[in-house]
Amino acid sequence: MFDKILIANRGEIALRVLRAAKELGIATVAVYSTADKEAMHVKLADESVCIGPPPARDSYLNVPALLAACEITGADAVHPGYGFLSENARFADILTEHGITFIGPKPEHIRVMGDKIEAKRTATRLGIPCVPGSPGAVSEASEALKIAEGIGYPVIVKAAAGGGGRGMKVAKNADELVNAISNAKIEAKAAFGDDAVYLEKYLAKPRHIEIQILGDGRGRAIHLGERDCSLQRRHQKVWEESPSPALNAAQREEIGGVCARAMAELGYIGVGTIEFLYEDGAFYFIEMNTRIQVEHPVTEMITGIDLVNEQIKIAAGSPLTIAQEDVRFNGAAIECRVNAEHARTFVPSPGRITYFHPPGGLGVRVDSAAYQGYNIPPNYDSLVGKLIVHARNRTEALMRLRRALDEFVVDGIETTLPLYRALVRNTDIQNGQYDIHWLEGYLNSDAANDI
Fold first, then answer.
1. What CATH fold (topology level) applies to the domain 207-448?
2. Strands 47-52 and 27-33, how do they pair?
3. Does domain 4-89 fall into CATH 3.40.50.20?
4. Which of 7, 99, 207, 397 is the most exposed place for a label (fewest CB within 10 A)?
5. Which residues are 222's β-sheet partners?
6. Angle at 39 between CA 33 and CA 45, to 5 degrees
7. Cα pseudo-dihedral 80, 289, 394, 415, rounded to 10
């Protein structure tokens, strides 16, 4: 087991990793920018090191500063959390070169899954169902037009190195496709430094379903069920739940088994999430995230398995001790991401929290690094915390969520809490009748006027 883990992140995920490490008896090192000197993970870690000024490029993305922090403190492993350097293969390589363990997958797997085109090729080879589309990057509009004619409109153009909805354009006909290719390439180049784009069939009303997997790099892998992340705004997840209202046990086991077998064949190590669009009973691979997910508590609540704990133990060389038949899915869980943003416009609202009262009670979990008097800095993402509820079934989980949201108080800044209070009372949400386009339609409707 590791002697000391440096947590190369901030906010609630840094605190989450710190807690798991402490429960394993491992010493922790927090790193922080000057904007985060009063952060909770800095206060609770065994040691802390300032790694630079507020801009992420000068602190949380500053690899030399992180290496220096490891050397100063004697950390023998680094947990990257999510975001920042969590899916940076070169960072993983550099740590290995310095004799430090990267708590995550092999660098080659990060590279493969970080390239959307190569990820799709790999998924196809491993037997994971994919969306019909181009076999690789398309460089000319004429090539794209020929492919689109074969798979049928509408189609979507995506950045090969993309994420978060950037470099994505939908085309309903040939004229729109020509413009979409041009605009997507420009946007992809600006956002990712790579203008490679590819083409896929655009699904009209799919759900976003992701499968949580866990592998030990020794040919063993299991799945821990699905999460439904269909409530999104501009391709950013807002609300996640498990099990999905759209799937039954047989579908869950079938797609979960496909993913587990694929990751075992790949020799994947650690946690990962394979994401799909789901429509009319069919799954279509879209990407794989080679890190812990923001929404991982949903899976932890219904399985009772500590994903970060398992992630650390596997990175330290322990074999996977959980067999697929050991995994039990218990009840229903829902997570709401509470951001420092206006609930209707999503305009950021950084600032000082003057009063903070998180909800409690049976089946209620709040993952947050916020506290009364804490200042939400404007330099990073606006996540204040995550509210997760668990109950015997979805109906009870919704009622518990409603109660917990009414208890949750954050004063001094705007938050998205009013949005969730409206969503949990919405008939479509209560009936599980929503897709990836539902939330944006709702926000543009009169129904959202009272948020």
1. D-amino Acid Aminotransferase; Chain A, domain 1 (3.30.470)
2. parallel
3. yes
4. 99
5. 214
6. 95
7. 60
Pick the CATH number of 132-201 from 3.30.1490.20, 3.30.470.20, 3.30.565.10, 3.10.20.310: 3.30.1490.20
d(CA 386, CA 401): 12
Number of neighbouring beta carbons within 10 Å of residue 304: 12
Q: What is the mean pLDDT of the chain?
A: 95
Q: Which residue is associated with the tokens 């543009």?
A: 444
**163 falls in which pLDDT band (50, 70, 90)?**
low
- How far apart, in whole angstroms, are the C-alpha atoms of residue 442 and residue 203? 19
pLDDT in tens, 274-290: 999 999 999 999 999 99
This prediction has a pTM of 0.91
**Token pair recorded at residue 258:** 């496909």
Angle at 125 between CA 86 and CA 199, to 5 degrees: 75
Q: How confident is the model at residue 139 (pLDDT cuts 50, 70, 90)?
A: confident
Burial of 330 (0-12, 13-18, 19+ CB in 10 A): exposed
- Whether 4-89 shares its CATH topology with 132-201 is answered no
Structural domain spans, the chain: 4-89, 132-201, 207-448
Sequence-ordered strand ranges (E) for 169-260: 169-171, 197-201, 207-216, 221-233, 236-242
